[in-house]
Amino acid sequence: MSEQNLYAVIWDVDGTLVDTGELHFQAWVQLAQDLKMPFTRDDFTATFGRRNPEIIGALFPGHTPEEIAQLGEQKELYYRAEARHGIDLLPGVRELLDGLKAAGYKQALGSSAPHKNLEMITEITESLPYFQAIVGMEDTKRGKPDPEVFLVAAQRMGVPPQNCLVMEDAVAGIEAATAGGMKSIAITFVGHHSEDSLRAAGANLVVPSLEGITVETINRLLSRS
Ligand SMILES: [Mg+2]
Predict the structure, then answer these.
(1) Is 187 in contact with 16 (CB distance < 8 Å)?
(2) Residue 46 CA, ligand 1 centroid: distance in Å
(3) What is the rounded CA–CA span in Å between residue 21 and residue 191?
(4) Burial of 38 (0-12, 13-18, 19+ CB in 10 A)
(5) Per its UniProt record, what Pfam families does this chain match (predicted)?
(6) Residues 88-127: pLDDT tens digits?
(7) Cis peptide before 161 (omega within 30 of 0)
C-alpha cells in the first residue's frame, strides 16, 4: 500500500485518552512541598500539558539543568505512585480505538509525558496493542505547540501528515496539530480549555466527549473515501 493511502490517528494522552489531571496535580504539590514552595490550582492550569523542564524552570527557578532533570524524575515518581490506584480510558475512547483499528487506521500516542508514564498508562488500561508508535517527552526537543511530537509519530508510522488526525484536549496541542498540517478533534471533557480557544487554535471539531464519535466522522474530516 502506498504511503498516500495510509491514514492515522495520533492521540494525546493526558486529558484525551485518560484523565490524569488530579494525579499530576497531587504529584506537583508533593514536589513543591519538598522544595518548600507553593503550588496552586492556578499554577497547575497555567502549566498543564507542558514538558517538565519548562514547568520547573517557570515555577521553581534557580536550578541547574541536572537539578531540573532530578526534580522532574521525582515528580514522575510521585505521579506513578498516585496512578497505581487506577486509571480508566475516557468515555468513548475504547470504542473508537477498536473502530479505527478495524478500519485499518494506524494509531500512535503523541504526548509530553515520559515513556515510563506512557508504558504504565497503556498497561493499566490494556491499550498497548492499538498503537504502532509511542512518542513521548524523550523523543522531542521542543514541546507542544511545536508540531515535533506529532510529526515524529507520523514519520514512525510512515503516514503523511496530511493523512493524520490528532485527538487533543489542550490549545497547545491543537496548535501543534495545525502547525504540523494535520486535522484535529478537540475534546472538552476534562475541561481545561474553552471551546472558542480550541476552535481558534484550528480544531476541525470540538466535542464534549468521544462518545458517539465514529470512524465515519474521522473519515470525513480526513476526506478519506
Ligand atoms: Mg492533554
Answers:
(1) yes
(2) 13
(3) 10
(4) exposed
(5) Hydrolase (PF00702)
(6) 899 999 999 999 999 999 999 999 999 999 999 999 999 9
(7) no
Distance from residue 14's CA to the centre of ligand 1 (Å): 4
Euclidean distance between CA atoms 211 and 110, whole angstroms: 21
Report pLDDT digits (tens) over 5-33: 899 999 999 999 999 888 999 999 999 99
For the chain, list the domains and their CATH numbers: 3-19+88-221 (3.40.50.1000), 21-83 (1.10.150)
Query: How remote is the CA of residue 16 from the centroid of ligand 1, in Å?
Result: 6
Neighbours of 86 (CB within 10 A): 9
The model carries a pTM of 0.85
Q: What is the CA(171)–ligand 1 centre distance, in A?
A: 9
C-alpha 1 – ligand 1 centre gap (Å)? 32
Q: How far is the CA of 15 from the centre of ligand 1 (A)?
A: 4
CA of 54 to the centre of ligand 1 (A): 16
CA 111 – ligand 1 centroid, Å: 8
Q: What angle, rounded to 10 degrees, do the helices at 21-35 and 65-83 form?
A: 130
What would the pLDDT profile of 147-190 be if each residue is shown by its tens digit? 999 999 999 999 999 999 999 999 999 999 999 999 999 999 98
Amino acid at 208: P
How far away, in angstroms, is 62 Cα from ligand 1 center?
28
Rounded distance from Cα 129 to ligand 1 centre (Å): 21
CB atoms within 10 A of CB 157: 23
- What the block records as the C-alpha cell of 19 is 484523565
